[in-house]
Design brief:
CATH class of the largest domain: Alpha Beta
Distance between the termini: 60 Å
Shape: globular
Strand content: 15-25%
Helix content: 25-40%
Number of domains: 3
CATH architecture of the largest domain: 3-Layer(bba) Sandwich
Number of helices: 13
Number of strands: 18
Largest sheet: 7 strands, mixed
CATH topology of the largest domain: FAD/NAD(P)-binding domain
Radius of gyration: 23 Å
Length: 426
């Protein structure tokens, strides 16, 4: 009998496996497709690679601003996609080798829960003391037959002349940013009144302005039935849903959103069966959150106390967006007497040197305790910079304590110091 069996080899699954090995547990890992899951193979990694290519391409187009006489010679998009596939393949190979070197047993095939301790796969039955369901999520059904989903978009070997995007969430705006930067005409259609409806209005408005500056047309309160879908490549980015394949619904409870119901320790109604990541109810559908949840489960099994962290969310547009903790509206709803400050990036030397994009850093603190409770960043390297603010929130650090930390000049980080100084003056 294995100590832990994990169904799913994506970020949650392999993170749980590596964490379990640290405790000396015997680990069995099932994966029916490719190790690394959606994130590595069809999501985060290839998308961020395309973001990198789009940024390079934009920099070439803007090189005259810096006195560099380089003219773009066009984009060999097929070569771009081939290189993306090479990078993903290399990372997947490294992941596989690391799992095997860690003495983790990998079983390739469709796993099915039989009962609280048994799993079947490839005609064989396996037994484990604890089971972790980490089967992730999958694309929702397409609204039209000839739409493509994000998996199919990333496999295209040609650059679309025109791209219609149905949906206004994070993936939608990232793809709009990427393809508009590469020269594709992009139209976003949403049923609501604004893109990024789950984000603060300020973030949504700022991202919308950047996209429009790049030529993206955003159609709000749209009726999809009225869209001419024959003149463009049509991408459906209308969300993802939990993947319950192989999950015996008699062993777990399913919520209204289709996810598995879990308690604060990620236990299902069958106490030795856990679920983490995109497959659980109210999931943030973020790889790094899934990875942390998986580690928390293993630590719980090992008898350690666990503590949840503030969730960091990022949008990889140009410039990047990153948020952590509470927004102003959330602080208000929670009845917190808060203060906030906003520092624009227009006077930041590093920003002026390398970009003409708009940007800001906003920090939110509890007025009574002076502890930092939230932050919103829209600037270059936002996804790297937000970690410091997440650490501050998780450890109850005050505005004065964080402001006292010296940040190098000239850096993007200086804007954090300036935002904190404004809070102190408040």
């Amino acid at each position: 009998m294995y100590k832990i069996a994990i169904i799913g080899g994506g970020p949650a699954g392999y993170s749980a496996a590596f964490e379990a090995v640290r405790y000396g547990f015997s680990v069995l890992l099932f994966e029916m497709d490719m190790l690394g899951g959606t994130c590595l193979n069809r999501g985060c990694v290839p998308t961020k690679y395309l973001s990198h290519v789009a940024e390079l391409y934009s920099n070439i187009n803007e090189s005259k601003r810096y006195g560099i006489g380089v003219e773009p010679t066009g984009l060999d998009y097929e070569k771009t996609v081939d290189e993306s596939e090479n990078i993903v393949s290399k990372l997947r190979e490294d992941l596989t080798n690391n799992l095997l070197q860690s003495k983790i047993t990998i079983v390739k095939g469709k796993a099915k829960l039989l009962d609280e301790t048994h799993i079947s796969c490839n005609g064989e039955v396996f037994e484990a003391e604890h089971i972790i369901i980490a089967t992730g999520s999958k694309n929702t059904d397409k609204p039209f037959v000839h739409c493509i989903n994000t998996d199919e978009l990333l496999s295209l070997k040609h650059l679309p002349d025109k791209l219609i995007i149905l949906g206004g969430g994070v993936s939608a705006v990232e793809f709009a940013d990427i393809f508009s930067s590469l020269g594709t005409q992009v139209d976003i259609y949403i049923r609501g009144k604004r893109i990024l409806r789950k984000w603060s209005k300020e973030i949504a408005t700022s991202v919308s302005s950047v996209l429009k500056k790049n030529g993206v047309k955003i159609h709000t309160e749209a009726d999809f039935a009225d869209i001419d879908l024959t003149s463009a490549t049509v991408l459906s980015v209308l969300g993802r849903k939990p993947n319950l394949e192989g999950v015996d619904e008699g062993l777990v409870s399913i919520a209204d959103d289709g996810g598995i119901v879990v308690d604060e320790y990620y236990r299902t109604k069958t106490k030795n069966i856990f679920a983490v990541g995109d497959v659980i109810w109210h999931s943030s559908q973020l790889a790094h959150v899934a990875m942390e949840e998986a580690k928390q489960v293993v630590r719980f099994i090992a008898g350690e106390t666990t503590k949840k962290s503030a969730v960091v969310q990022c949008i990889y547009t140009m410039p990047e967006v990153a948020v952590v903790g509470l927004s102003e509206s959330e602080a208000k709803e929670a009845g917190i007497d808060y203060i906030s400050s906003k520092q624009t990036m227009y006077s930041n030397a590093r920003t002026v040197i390398g970009s003409t994009d708009r940007g800001f850093i906003k920090i939110i603190a509890d007025k009574n305790t002076e502890k930092i409770i939230g932050a919103e960043l829209m600037c270059e390297r936002a996804s790297d910079m937000v970690g410091e603010l997440a650490l501050a929130i998780n450890n109850g650090i005050t505005v004065s304590e964080l402001e006292g930390s010296t940040r190098a000049h000239p850096t993007f980080y200086e804007a954090v110091t300036e935002a904190l100084a404004k809070l102190i003056r408040n």
